[in-house]
Structure formats: C-alpha cells, structure tokens
Design goal:
Length: 211
C-alpha cells in the first residue's frame, strides 16, 4: 500500500527529565538513566493527504526505563478535540509513525520504541508558546499541566540564551533551550521539575526534516 504524503509546520515545546541541554541530543545517556517527556505542538499549517491540519494542536506523554533507543517505553497521545474524524485519524497516523519513512521523525521512533501504547485522548489543548522568549504554557484539563521558562543565571538572575543546532535529526534543526515543569495525570504519570526544555519551529514530512 502506498505511503500517504504528509507535512506539518508548527511550533513545539518539549520538557524532559534530563539536565539542561539534554545529553540525549548528543547521543549520550539520559541524565537519570531513564527518559520521560511531555511534548506539545501547534500546527500552523499542514496536511495528511487531502486532510488539512491547520490550527490544530497535539501533545504526548512518554516514559522509557532507559534510553529511548533501548525501547520498552510507554506512550499516550493527545489530540485536539476540535479535530474532526478525518483529522483525528490523520494526526494519530502521524504521531504513530504511520505513513513515515523508518527513523525519519521523532514520532515514528518514539512510537516504535514504546511497547505499552495507551488509548489516545481527545480533549481541549490550551497551548501558548513564545520561542524567542523561551516560554510556554500547556494545559490539558484533568490530564497534563506544563510550563517552560528561560534558564536564569544563578548569580545575576539574567536570562541565559542557549541553542541546540543539529545538522541531522528527526525533530528540529535549531531549538532554543530553557527549563520546564510538567505533571501528567494520565496513563503515563510524570512529575518533572526544573529540567531541560526546548522551544522550536518544526517542519516535518513523511520523509523527515526537509533539506
């Protein structure tokens, strides 16, 4: 069966349980030897086949007992309740790594590396992000609360400006680095405090990040 073409452009906030900067971005082991993360994304423009995805939001909660590539993970996906049936199906296919080249996106890898896959949740997703200011706010009522802030100099209190730039990857090319706090009350229960966060523009297709 032919792979359906898809593309999304948007803004992403991620908070994981690693130290600022996240060693996983450099193929090192997670700070605490396990990986937990909350991801939220607003799609400014996109499609899956002929299904338009503009303006919709998605989120996910993940847990792995070791590094992501070692598998045995747990995942729960969240889809904007405003999405119609076709849009829900399209977004879940993207987030489950369907219609995607192997290893091409974070969604494909994260889902593949998750043995325990909980039922998706369709709910209101309140999400605000300012990439330049390195701030974000996420609320999925009764499920997830998360926020992101800039890293502060411990002596002066000045905002620290740091970036991650990856020539090859499956999520972003450039991301602003900050810190975050997250709580997930769903099937994947997480409590993350003052750890790595990043804020970025993303552009993904069924073949990965365009050149």
């Amino acid at each position: 069966m032919a792979q359906t073409s898809w593309e999304i452009r948007g803004r992403e906030f991620t908070n994981c349980n690693c130290a600022y900067g996240c060693p996983c971005q450099f193929n090192a082991r997670p700070t605490k030897n396990q990986c937990e993360a909350i991801i939220a994304l607003e799609i400014d423009g996109g499609h899956h086949g002929s299904t338009k995805l503009d303006g919709l939001r998605i989120a996910a909660a993940y847990h792995w007992p070791g590094a992501v590539h070692e598998g045995r993970g747990e995942a729960q996906l969240f889809v904007d309740e405003r999405a119609n049936a076709d849009q829900r199906d399209a977004l879940l296919k993207i987030m489950r790594g369907e219609d995607t080249d192997a290893g091409a996106t974070m969604f494909q890898i994260f889902w593949l590396m998750s043995d325990k896959r909980h039922d998706p949740v369709f709910a209101p997703i309140d999400f605000k992000i300012d990439i330049g200011e390195r701030t974000a706010q996420l609320e999925i009522p009764h499920w997830i609360e998360a926020r992101g802030e800039p890293i502060l100099n411990p002596v002066t209190g000045a905002k620290k400006h740091a970036r991650l730039a990856l020539e090859s990857g499956f999520e972003f090319k450039v991301a602003e680095v900050g810190r975050g706090w997250s709580e997930s009350k769903g099937a994947v229960k997480l409590q993350i405090a003052d750890t790595h966060a990043h804020f970025c523009n993303i552009h993904l297709t069924d073949h990965g990040i365009p050149a």
